[in-house]
From TrEMBL:
GO biological process: transmembrane transport
Protein name: AEC family transporter
Protein source organism: Krasilnikovia cinnamomea
Location(s) in or outside the cell: Membrane
Gene Ontology CC annotations of this record: membrane
Membrane topology: Multi-pass membrane protein
Main location: membrane
Signal peptide: none
Pfam families in the cross-refs: Mem_trans (PF03547)
Keywords linked to the UniProt accession: Cell membrane, Membrane, Transmembrane, Transmembrane helix, Transport
Transmembrane segments: 27-49, 61-80, 120-140, 160-179, 185-209, 221-243, 249-269, 281-301
């Protein structure tokens, strides 16, 4: 498990050091974030989904996990304004920081180590991409409207205007139709996708440098961390018991629910210019502490 966490900490530290030592300019974090959002992340999503079978997507295990995501994201979304006075545009990001799990680059090695396979994690990835991400990005897109109105045209054109959703839809279509892009296209996208995770982590680390890092209330960060690492696994466990999951299924659901906040959350916050400070710290803190909480979950349920 430790070997899965160390690269994340190292790359984040490199980003912080590069920004602190003046190796990157004032706009470097924004430029790196836009590169990930518009180019590298769409390449990752397209390749992942185009190769992922869509059969057997829904089941009791995924339902239990979905209940934990909906509950925690909903509480975070509402609590952001009630407890900490966050503006409407910041609430979706706050909820995402509390309930959107790092199912890809960290989830895969953790699932392999604790669960022995990534079968259930593949369903978690699909849920994140097909349901959670469009809901969050749709809400953020709505708040870009000066009047905050929900426009039918705006919603209908969101998949075309948003590269993350567009790439996901194209990947799903290729998987459903069993289409295989030409080899040069796949090779190019593979090279581009390889830059997504390290670039996002370097950008995350750079955002933590004091010169451009607004102060975040410790209480706010503590609430997000508790929701992500304690409340969400407990809700997943309770939902799993209610749905009569077997012991291996229950372990998979709880471990996946206990994964830390995904760095994609920071990229989305940066792209929409809202909540970057609290999200960047939430990613770092939950990633650091989840090593202990995931080990505890595995020990209790394994």
């Amino acid at each position: 498990m430790l070997s899965a966490f160390v690269p994340i900490w190292i790359l984040t530290t490199i980003g912080y050091a590069a920004r602190r030592w003046g190796l990157m300019g004032e706009t470097a974090t924004a430029v790196l974030g836009r590169f990930v959002f518009h180019l590298a992340m769409p390449a990752v999503l397209f390749l992942t989904l185009s190769r992922m079978p869509l059969s057997g997507f829904f089941g009791r295990s995924l339902l239990a996990f979905a209940v934990s995501v909906a509950a925690v994201v909903g509480v975070g979304w509402a609590g952001a304004s009630r407890l900490f006075g966050r503006k409407p545009a910041e609430r979706p990001i706050w909820g995402m920081a509390a309930g959107y799990v790092n199912s890809a680059n960290l989830g895969i090695p953790i699932a392999t180590q604790i669960l022995g396979n990534v079968t259930f994690l593949a369903q978690v990835v699909l849920l994140n991409v097909l349901v959670v991400t469009p809901v969050i990005l749709g809400a953020l897109d709505r708040h870009r409207d000066p009047a905050g109105r929900v426009r039918v045209r705006q919603i209908a054109t969101l998949p075309v205007r948003n590269p993350v959703i567009l790439a996901s839809l194209l990947g799903i279509l290729c998987s459903a139709a069993d289409l295989h892009p030409p080899s040069p296209v796949v090779s190019s996208l593979t090279l581009l996708s390889g830059a997504a995770v390290p670039t996002a982590l370097v950008a995350l680390g750079a955002s933590l440098h004091g010169a451009g890092a607004p102060r975040v209330e410790p209480a706010e960060l503590a609430v997000i961390t508790a929701l992500k690492l304690v409340v969400q696994p407990i809700v997943a466990w309770a939902a799993g018991l209610a749905l009569h999951l077997s012991a291996p299924q229950l372990l998979a659901v709880v471990v996946c629910a206990g994964l830390p906040t995904a760095q994609n959350t920071f990229i989305y916050a940066q792209e929409y210019g809202t909540g970057e400070a609290v999200v960047s710290r939430a990613v770092v803190v939950t990633t650091t502490l989840s090593l202990a909480t995931l080990a505890a979950s595995a020990a209790l349920l394994g």
